[in-house]
């Protein structure tokens, strides 16, 4: 024992001399269990009793340290549990090493709580008095929950197997039917006193009494203590103090609270004033009343306080309850209850040791061998103890079940008969919000997953929408499991017919044919102008038999792109593979359809006239004059034309004499094999890299002459009865003045054919070699709501006559025009308008305007064209409207319009290439109905 007045050892290794002293006590041994919380590194909870374990002591979970003072009848049994900070730290380290990143705090907390409950249950069965140590300054309400779980475990589990199992052992006769020494009396020891309160007798006693009343109310309300102390879980002393505050020394103070107090003191420190000087001096005094006269009252008060501090110790507090047990009045009543005699067994040290061994083996087993246990109740206790006491898990599970029920009900109530995945996700998100109003805790994630699965099955049970995306990315609203003839998204657009006179509602298209052909054919039947206008016939696929199909392309199109690159790099090899008849036809096209010099070198170099793979026929690098003219005259004309263009901004048009009437083609000439396929058609639109010989099933473009040029008045613009749906001020075409200089054929050629010249041609020649052509052009955009407007610049909507300048249209036709532009209509949603029509009013001159539009768009930079072998010619003094495709599709996939356009990236969605217009001399030998044929093009100039 040394300098210490007590013995200490680790159970069950009791020293022999201590065992002899305990045996001398006989049946007067009172066992006091010390359990609760500690912050000491040795997990010591007896510092208030002036007791400490040996220096080499190592705390461990489930370990017992015994303390005994010679001359007393009390054996202090110190429980080391997971509520001690030192042991809790050990358990955290072990769990982190085992679980690693998958460490679950909730599961860890439940395991620590169940281990503490086992030790607490053992203390209730082997101890007469239980002292609960609290390191805080107030009562911990979580202890009430722990006591409730202990009561449940004893009544529902322990009492089912303990009497039968202990009956076969010597401990059964000692412990009786209750299987414990007595109804243990519980005491509460608070190691620290509130710092703000004075440590006088009145203050400490008032705090202790107030805490006792609060604890009694909590325990009584939760039925931890009852009127019958023998049947209650715990007992409280009758008219004795059961709460002790260690007010006169501070043990294991909360460092966080100390830091906060010092911080507050520093932040709220005020400057020293004159009246505070006396207080500061008094604080330096060694004791209260220093340098003051001692009166009788002061001596009396000081003596009482000193005596109270000497007597107010934890050991004296405990001894009063030990004496009650020795005198036999331990169980005479519970706190504020009717006195009654209960069961109290005072055993010898040897008898108590036998009971301790049996109860420790049953309640805190080291190895749970479930298969070797015969008692079914005990096996069930070992298997389900932790799970049955996990009240928090049960609570969270119950809340999640309620939330799951409400969430599923909210989903089913709001779900329509048929809906798609986006609606399903929205309904599921709303159901999760409803779930979270009641569902909480760790099981919430699993409950949400279960709810998602149930809602998904509900959606897939005949309520799933087809969701086939339209060409405008709108899902089909038809039922998925029910057959339907055609898809329908329920979205309606407003579009105009080919001529622009009639507007109608169109369903959201799901096929290219429905978007670019069927709607306009349907509108042509409703419009009284579309059926009367002159239409340009675009080349389409004509099958030779019923066994025809769409041209097949690779899924990722590596071979197709490789063929295109080879075709660009090795044109000579491709020409060698063509048949002789094809070469003659290509040569004929090249000779008759060459282009003169463009308006500027920029446009001429950037924009060629190649269409649908027939770039050789319209290559601007080929000579533009007739082959009958000699090379000298060609060079002179070319040089003079170039200088004229640079100096006077004029276009040079080479005129030729009317050719002789051609004879009917013979059978041999018509027997040239065609390049057009009759078994495979092009699935998308024609573009510059389309495979030669493939044509679409239907035309996606429309070119129509809607009337003479006189139907347009530049003063009033396009009237509502002629073109409906235009926004105010955006219904004007832009005037375009084109200066033209005529270059006549050589004299010998001219004289040889003079008798065959028509009167119209002669009148045209008399006007001189310079003239000005006045053309009206308009680039029309249309949004899905049917709003139409013209553009005066690539980034500006036409706002009436003030935006029309003399050179406005000249800049427009020589600039790339965006394919999509934000509609100026006011709406909550920003609608994109699409370039849908190009209006052209041709001049009153014996020339033809030639249109060759090219639309560039897509990631692969497709350049879509009309698909005609020869660009169409527009007759003079007429109003022509070119309708562009509503949907663009390349070889591989649909090119969807952008969802939103930024002001600095207007060309991101696609654009119309500049330089789409050309000019050519009208051939008097051709009728207007044949202006679009290949033989009627003649020599023309790009403007």
Q: Can you walk through the features of this model?
A:
- The strands form 7 sheets. Strands 10, 12, 14, 15, 16, 17, 18, 20, 21 and 26 form a 10-stranded mixed sheet that branches.
- Residues 554-649, 661-673, 748-767 and 931-938 have low confidence and may be disordered.
- The protein contains 25 helices and 31 strands.
- Helix content is 35%, strand content 15%.
- It folds into 3 domains: 7-268 and 280-387, no CATH class; 391-460, no CATH class; 549-660 and 671-942, no CATH class.
- It has 943 residues and is of the alpha+beta class.
- A hairpin with a 4-residue loop joins strand 27 (888-889) and strand 28 (894-895).
- The N and C termini lie far apart (118 Å).
Poorly predicted runs? 554-649, 661-673, 748-767, 931-938
What class would the helix/strand composition place it in?
Answer: alpha+beta
Total helical elements = 25
Q: How many distinct beta strands?
A: 31
Question: What's the rounded overall pLDDT mean?
Answer: 79
Biased composition (Low complexity): 634-650, 668-678
GO biological process, one term: nuclear-transcribed mRNA catabolic process, nonsense-mediated decay
Family: Belongs to the SMG8 family.
Biased composition (Acidic residues): 569-585, 623-633
């Amino acid at each position: 024992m040394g300098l210490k007045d007590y013995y200490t050892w680790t159970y069950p290794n009791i020293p022999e001399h201590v065992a002899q002293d305990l045996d001398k006590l006989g049946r007067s041994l009172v066992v006091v269990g010390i359990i609760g919380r500690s912050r000491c590194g040795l997990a010591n909870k007896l510092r208030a009793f002036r007791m400490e374990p040996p220096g080499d002591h190592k705390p461990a979970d489930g370990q017992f340290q015994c303390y005994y003072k010679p001359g007393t009848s009390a054996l202090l049994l110190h429980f080391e549990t997971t509520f001690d900070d030192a042991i809790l730290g050990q358990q955290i380290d072990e769990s982190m090493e085992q679980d690693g990143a998958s460490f679950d705090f909730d599961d860890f907390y439940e395991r620590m709580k169940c281990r503490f409950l086992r030790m607490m249950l053992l203390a209730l069965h082997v101890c007469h008095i239980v002292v609960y140590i609290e390191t805080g300054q107030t009562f911990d309400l979580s202890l009430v929950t722990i006591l409730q779980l202990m009561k449940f475990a004893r009544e529902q589990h322990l009492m089912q197997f303990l009497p039968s199992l202990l009956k076969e052992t010597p401990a059964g006769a000692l412990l009786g039917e209750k299987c414990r020494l007595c109804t243990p009396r519980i005491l509460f020891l608070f190691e620290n006193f509130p710092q703000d309160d004075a440590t006088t007798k009145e203050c400490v006693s008032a705090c202790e009494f107030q805490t006792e009343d609060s604890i009694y109310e909590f325990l009584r309300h939760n039925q931890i203590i009852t009127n019958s102390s023998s049947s209650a879980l715990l007992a409280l002393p009758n008219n004795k103090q059961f709460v002790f505050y260690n007010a006169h020394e501070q043990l294991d103070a909360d460092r966080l609270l100390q830091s906060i107090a010092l911080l507050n003191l520093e932040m709220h420190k005020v400057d020293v004033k004159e009246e505070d000087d006396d207080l500061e001096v008094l604080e330096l005094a060694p004791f209260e009343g220093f340098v003051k006269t001692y009166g009788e009252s002061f001596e009396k008060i000081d003596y009482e306080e000193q005596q109270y501090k000497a007597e107010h110790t934890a050991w004296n507090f405990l001894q009063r309850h030990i004496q009650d047990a020795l005198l036999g009045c331990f169980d005479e009543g519970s706190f504020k209850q009717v006195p009654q005699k209960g069961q109290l067994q005072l055993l010898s040290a040897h008898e108590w040791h036998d009971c301790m061994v049996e109860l420790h083996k049953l309640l805190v087993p080291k190895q749970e061998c479930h298969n070797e246990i015969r008692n079914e109740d005990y096996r069930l206790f070992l298997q389900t103890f932790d799970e049955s006491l996990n009240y928090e898990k049960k609570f969270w599970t119950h809340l999640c079940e309620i939330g799951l029920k409400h969430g599923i009900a909210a989903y089913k109530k709001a779900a329509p008969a048929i809906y798609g995945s986006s609606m399903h996700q929205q309904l599921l998100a709303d159901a999760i919000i409803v779930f979270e109003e009641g569902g909480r805790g760790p099981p919430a994630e699993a409950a949400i997953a279960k709810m998602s699965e149930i809602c998904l099955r509900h959606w897939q049970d005949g309520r799933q929408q087809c969701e086939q995306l339209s060409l405008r990315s709108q899902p089909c609203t038809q039922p998925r499991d029910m057959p339907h003839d055609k898809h329908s998204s329920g979205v309606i657009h407003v579009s105009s017919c080919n001529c622009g006179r009639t507007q109608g509602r169109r369903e959201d298209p799901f096929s290219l044919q429905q978007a670019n052909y069927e709607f306009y054919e349907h509108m042509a039947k409703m419009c009284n102008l579309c059926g009367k206008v002159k239409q340009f016939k675009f080349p389409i696929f004509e099958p030779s038999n019923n066994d025809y199909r769409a041209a097949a392309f690779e899924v990722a199109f590596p071979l197709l792109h490789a063929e295109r690159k080879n075709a660009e790099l090795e044109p000579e090899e491709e020409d060698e593979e063509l048949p002789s008849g094809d070469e003659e036809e290509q040569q004929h096209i090249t000779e008759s359809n060459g282009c003169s010099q463009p308006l500027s070198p920029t446009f001429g170099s950037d924009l060629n006239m190649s269409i649908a793979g027939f770039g050789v026929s319209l290559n601007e690098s080929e000579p533009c004059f007739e082959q009958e003219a000699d090379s000298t005259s060609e060079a002179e004309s070319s040089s003079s034309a170039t200088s004229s263009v640079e100096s006077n901004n004029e276009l040079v048009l080479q005129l030729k004499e009317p050719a002789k009437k051609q004879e009917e083609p013979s059978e041999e000439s018509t027997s040239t094999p065609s390049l057009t396929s009759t078994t495979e058609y092009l699935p998308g639109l024609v573009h510059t890299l389309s495979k030669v010989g493939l044509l679409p099933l239907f035309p996606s473009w429309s070119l129509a002459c809607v009337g003479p040029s006189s139907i347009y008045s530049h003063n009033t613009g396009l009237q509502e009865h002629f073109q409906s749906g235009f926004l105010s001020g955006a219904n004007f075409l832009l005037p375009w003045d084109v200066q033209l200089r005529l270059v006549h054929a050589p004299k010998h050629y001219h004289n040889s054919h003079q008798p065959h010249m028509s009167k119209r041609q002669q009148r045209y020649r008399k006007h001189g070699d310079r003239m000005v052509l006045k053309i009206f052009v308009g680039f029309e955009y249309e949004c899905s709501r049917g709003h139409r407007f013209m553009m005066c610049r690539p980034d500006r909507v036409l706002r009436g006559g003030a935006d029309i300048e003399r050179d406005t249209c000249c800049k427009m036709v020589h600039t790339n025009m965006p394919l999509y532009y934000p509609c100026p209509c006011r709406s909550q949603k920003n609608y994109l308008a699409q370039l849908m029509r190009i209006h052209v009013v041709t001049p009153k001159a014996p020339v033809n305007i030639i249109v060759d539009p090219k639309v560039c768009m897509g990631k692969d930079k497709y350049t879509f064209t009309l698909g005609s072998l020869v660009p169409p010619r527009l007759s003079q003094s007429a109003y022509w409207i070119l309708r562009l495709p509503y949907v663009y599709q390349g070889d591989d996939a649909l090119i969807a319009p952008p969802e939103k356009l930024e002001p600095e990236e207007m060309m991101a969605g696609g654009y119309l290439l500049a330089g789409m217009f050309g000019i050519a001399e009208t051939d008097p030998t051709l009728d207007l109905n044949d202006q679009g044929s290949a033989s009627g093009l003649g020599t023309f100039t790009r403007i």
